[in-house]
Amino acid sequence: MRTFSLFSSLLAISQLLLLLPSTARGSDTLFRGGTVLSFDNATESVKVLYNTSVLVSGSQIVSISPQSQNVTLSPGTEVIPSEGKIISPGFVDTHRHLWQSAFRTLGSNTSLAEYFFRYSEFTQAGTVFTPDDVYYGQIIGIYESLNAGVTSILDHAHHTWSNATALAGLNASIASGARVWWCYAFHNLTNGYTREDQLADFEYLSQYGPWRNSSTTTLGLAYDPISLDPPSLVQTVVNVAKQQNVSVITAHYLGGPWGFVNSPVLANSYGILNTSIPVVFSHGSYLTVQDAELLRSTNQYLSITPESEMHYGHGDADSQLIQDQAALGVDTHFTYSTDIVTQARIWLQSVRLLFYNQVRANWQIPRNNPMSANQAFLLATRAGGLALRRPDVGVLVEGAKADIVVFDGTAPNMLGWVDPVAAVMLHSNVGNVQHVMVDGEFKKRDFNLTVGDDYAEVQQQFLNSARRIQAIWEATPLPDLEGDYPYSSGILYGEAVTVDVVRGNSTGY
Ligand SMILES: *[C@@H]1O[C@H](CO)[C@@H](O)[C@H](O)[C@H]1NC(C)=O
Ligand SMILES: *[C@@H]1O[C@H](CO)[C@@H](O)[C@H](O)[C@H]1NC(C)=O
Ligand SMILES: *[C@@H]1O[C@H](CO)[C@@H](O)[C@H](O)[C@H]1NC(C)=O
Ligand SMILES: *[C@@H]1O[C@H](CO)[C@@H](O)[C@H](O)[C@H]1NC(C)=O
Ligand SMILES: *[C@@H]1O[C@H](CO)[C@@H](O)[C@H](O)[C@H]1NC(C)=O
Ligand SMILES: *[C@@H]1O[C@H](CO)[C@@H](O)[C@H](O)[C@H]1NC(C)=O
Ligand SMILES: *[C@@H]1O[C@H](CO)[C@@H](O)[C@H](O)[C@H]1NC(C)=O
Ligand SMILES: *[C@@H]1O[C@H](CO)[C@@H](O)[C@H](O)[C@H]1NC(C)=O
Ligand SMILES: *[C@@H]1O[C@H](CO)[C@@H](O)[C@H](O)[C@H]1NC(C)=O
Ligand SMILES: *[C@@H]1O[C@H](CO)[C@@H](O)[C@H](O)[C@H]1NC(C)=O
Ligand SMILES: *[C@@H]1O[C@H](CO)[C@@H](O)[C@H](O)[C@H]1NC(C)=O
Ligand SMILES: [Zn+2]
Question: What pTM was estimated for this model as a whole?
């Protein structure tokens, strides 16, 4: 935001005046002698550096050097011994709905059609969730990410049901200290909060929101379904987004029978794609060749959400063919895992299977492996930064933002590793995430979240909120999915086979 650089200069000056070097935000940290997953700009590939130290000053990585080489440390630098540890850039999640934490486990066997009418932004959530419910759901959703080493999140924030619920999610994003692209959602609501109201609030927040409290949360725009809106409305929203110079624009793209055709082709027809603002399309089910060409020619990205696309059956994605313009995302964390390493692992193995199948379909035996662990690692880190046009995010190089994850390489599932990228991508779990730093500040330290003294209180408030919400949802009948599917014409509901793993007459559940 425009105001920020002025504010940060003032902050720097005020810190100088206060002269509190040991406690001031931004005192230096040295991760000493770990194995660093860096990036080689010349060859555009992962560069593993052994016995290497990483020096953080303020919000930046200022040096990466061999452990044997003495670095000059300013007084008060904290040294974190990192022998046996694997030091990774923070992971980047390019698609989330952070407010939904209170639904956790309720949708374990839901479907996408059921989701639309039971858990989405268009349901009773818009009247049942208070600003506090949004706040606690949002912040707990972010804490789950931080705990897993996910330091950057693009939040498709469709909790914008009123000025107050919008502000609550924004407040929580800022309070978390994570790097959040908080994307104010424009949507066609039935609760009386009109598009005009939303536009006014968006412009108000852009100018007067609590941005100066944060160096890590920025304002983005989420918008769908663009394809169902009148062109004049779309043009108005797009113009406002450009005027406010949002940090990113995002939309769900579910083509084919789903009818949310927020495609690159459509976005381009509104002049959204070929500007300096990054645009991220989530899912890309039924992505066309023309869409892919446009992503490449305008350098915009697809957010692949592997577990979401399997859980809900978005279907028919050709995402494996556009991985050079793709990053990874989580989507609805109340239904499954949130850590990007798990998403990358699911994606890696499913891409392998897919390309193996093509060889076996010819009755041949695959000679080689189609996708490496390094490729999955780059999708989970650097590609996310590039999707947001932030080359200083998702890489562990000098000058990049100090978003850092330290894995304990001595845990039983890690011990003995030779290739640290393979150790992280294929063997690690969230329990191995020992330290997490965002923008130079610890958010997890020695396996514990360090998110403020009020964490226990936040947990309690979230539980109170979640229990209230869960009781309401459990008492709400499931939607009746009969006849026509409403978002596309001539599309009916159909029945998927249900599996029964128990012999005999069990119910299948
Ligand atoms: C890395 O290369 C890109 C171009 O590919 C360039 O824009 C960027 O400045 C380089 N970064 C560093 C740290 O050299
Ligand atoms: C790193 O340091 C350890 C202990 O000092 C040493 O045993 C090991 O050989 C070093 N590894 C590399 C790759 O230099
Ligand atoms: C680094 O500093 C230590 C202690 O200050 C000293 O013993 C060692 O020789 C120095 N190493 C190099 C490479 O300068
Ligand atoms: C799974 O689906 C069945 C059938 O709709 C339902 O009875 C059951 O409660 C669901 N389980 C969960 C955990 O949602
Ligand atoms: C959000 O923060 C502002 C202060 O910046 C405060 O006035 C407001 O009450 C907060 N709202 C919620 C719902 O947290
Ligand atoms: C922003 O900072 C001001 C002043 O410290 C504080 O009053 C306000 O509550 C903060 N707002 C948020 C959303 O953190
Ligand atoms: C929402 O915020 C906008 C922008 O400040 C304002 O014009 C509008 O009156 C607010 N709506 C309500 C219901 O407070
Ligand atoms: C908004 O939703 C209402 C009913 O839910 C529908 O009648 C109307 O056509 C929708 N408008 C747009 C622009 O999609
Ligand atoms: C828009 O914001 C970006 C940073 O997000 C900045 O680099 C760029 O200069 C801004 N453009 C305008 C026209 O203000
Ligand atoms: C994007 O704009 C540039 C000029 O700014 C132009 O050269 C290029 O052809 C445009 N690409 C598309 C796909 O419109
Ligand atoms: C982590 O938290 C637990 C439980 O609150 C506490 O017992 C333990 O001392 C903490 N560990 C560190 C290193 O702070
Ligand atoms: Zn989504």
Answer: 0.93
